[in-house]
Amino acid sequence: MKKLLLKLFVGFVVIPAALVGTLYYLNEQGFFNIQKVEVVLEDAPLGQEQFLKPNVDTLESVLAKYKGVSLWNIKLKKVSKELQQQEWIEGMQISRSWPTTLAVRVKPYEVKLLYMAKGGKLLPIIKNGEFLDSIEAKTAPDVAILDGDAFSKKKELRKKAVDVIEQIPAQGSFSRKTISEVRYDNKEGFWMTLIKTGTQVKIGEDQVALKAARVSRVVDYLETKQFDARVIDADLSKKVLVRLRKDP
Predict the structure, then answer these.
(1) Dihedral, CA atoms, 59, 65, 67, 68, nearest 10 degrees?
(2) N or C, which terminus of the chain has less Cβ within 10 Å?
(3) Domain spans of the chain?
(4) Roughly how many angstroms between the first and final C-alpha of the chain, as a whole number?
């Protein structure tokens, strides 16, 4: 019985105490000090690398101050609060990667649209209609630009624009890639400008996916016939109206 109690004492008291003591000693000697901060992007939007790179560089600079801090002592909640101030981050996961790495996995917001403010500043717009900090043109994602002062004042209108643009296919003759500008009219709804031809497309506000498919077929037909359209009005019940450049 005494031997059993001795074994239990060694197993549950002596060994854990020795392990804790060893870890404490190693920690005091700097064995667990952070040497590397690893930032990994998850679900990063395709084609927005030039927008994300300076943001990631800034994040790495912010986190660099934790190098030399023990992984045992670092407060992950504090790090999380700092990352929440980076408005381009939608979600994150922070963890300790023993013995010397702080691992940060970040999910960035996708920029849906841009707005050109006064002075030529480009403001990225995310899915909820919020603005992010202004960026330079050279780092801007390849997305359409909202045109009109109303967009600067009304978040709900920006959110509506995002909802509309999301219903348009990513690829095709009429797609998000072929649209340079989006504007809004209180009576007629959304209008879009095609990059290649400058054609104005009236898309309205409802049944956008259906209308986009119709416009795509019309654009294909116009290109085949080498017609130059000035306006494509898709905001009709069952048809698309085309006004050519020579039309009144």
Answers:
(1) -170
(2) C
(3) 36-108, 113-244
(4) 106
